[in-house]
Amino acid sequence: MRKTEWHLWTLDQYSEEEQWLNKKAQEGWALTEAFAVRYVFEPCQPGEYVYKIVFTDGVRGTTERDNFTSFLEENGIEEVGRYHRWAYYRKKNDGTGFEIFNTVREELAHINKIRKLSSVLLMIMIICLSMELRVMMVAPSVTVPMVMTAAVSVMILKIYRGLSQKAKKLEADMALFE
Amino acid sequence: MADKNNTPLTEAVYYILLSVTAPMHGYGIIQNVKEKTGGRLVLAAGTLYGAITNLMSKGWIQIINEDEATRKKDYLITDSGMEALKAELTRLEELVKNGREIIQE
């Protein structure tokens, strides 16, 4: 018996998303597929798996990514889903926690990758907004989509700023610790 | 900052190089480091992968055996890797010596 759930998580909520998936696993539902907002779960022993979400470097099918994935497999880590560059990993829960990366440097690099993506999205939204603004001069009916675009832009800006704050904190740590 | 003597190494790199003084595969390295540090340092698989990739391109370690079926690779330190490891050990000894002169317990 499988069940499908729909959930929207924003770019900066990967930790919350991870907690959500781990809670599901605790309740006996193991994620087996993930794509954008669609999540498929299958029954498992409660707490059988732990999950980790990573914004990876390469895309599917490249040698670099294949090497990375098979290296993880050697270490008992399985990729269960992938959307764009977001990868969903799981391993059997042995009570020792689950990290794919565990240095400050890598955590910072991870945040910066997501920050870069959010800045690209923000740029696209601003281009849309300026185009809509031009159209609005002649057709005021564009106001509603324009307000929506503006709202999404503000949301992405907030995400970007949140990630920047996180990055700044880690940079300060890096000056003291390896 | 990294200088031309290739020191200081990160803790992870230091222990990876120590591990591959004998042929060892990825999982073996993680276990070995964990054992050597009494469980204090547990390398995450992705961290180890990144370090191995960088050490390979620097020529400090090499693949000496690859299992066709499982794609499992055995790594071994090279001469230049051994040099870097020795330089780091000398640096660490200096750190400890200077520390011990001030702090005796």
Describe the structure.
- The complex is a heterodimer of chains A (178) and B (105).
- Chain A has helices at residues 14-26, 63-74, 104-138, 143-174; strands spanning 3-6, 29-35, 38-43, 49-55, 78-83, 86-92.
- Chain A has 178 residues and is of the alpha+beta class.
- In chain A, helix 3 (104-138) packs antiparallel against helix 4 (143-174).
- The longest helix of chain A is centred in the last third of the chain and has 35 residues, at 104-138.
- The termini of chain A are far apart.
- Chain B is of the alpha+beta class.
- Chain B has a single domain (11-100), classed as Arc Repressor Mutant, subunit A.
- Helices cover 55% and strands 12% of the residues of chain B.
- Chain B contains 4 helices and 3 strands; from the N terminus they run H-E-H-H-E-E-H.
- Chains A and B meet through helix 2 of A and helix 2 and helix 3 of B.
Indicate the topology.
The complex is a heterodimer of chains A (178) and B (105).
Chain A: E1 3-6, H1 14-26, E2 29-35, E3 38-43, E4 49-55, H2 63-74, E5 78-83, E6 86-92, H3 104-138, H4 143-174
Antiparallel strand pairs in A: 1-3, 2-3, 4-6, 5-6
Chain B: H1 11-19, E1 24-25, H2 26-36, H3 45-58, E2 61-66, E3 73-77, H4 79-102
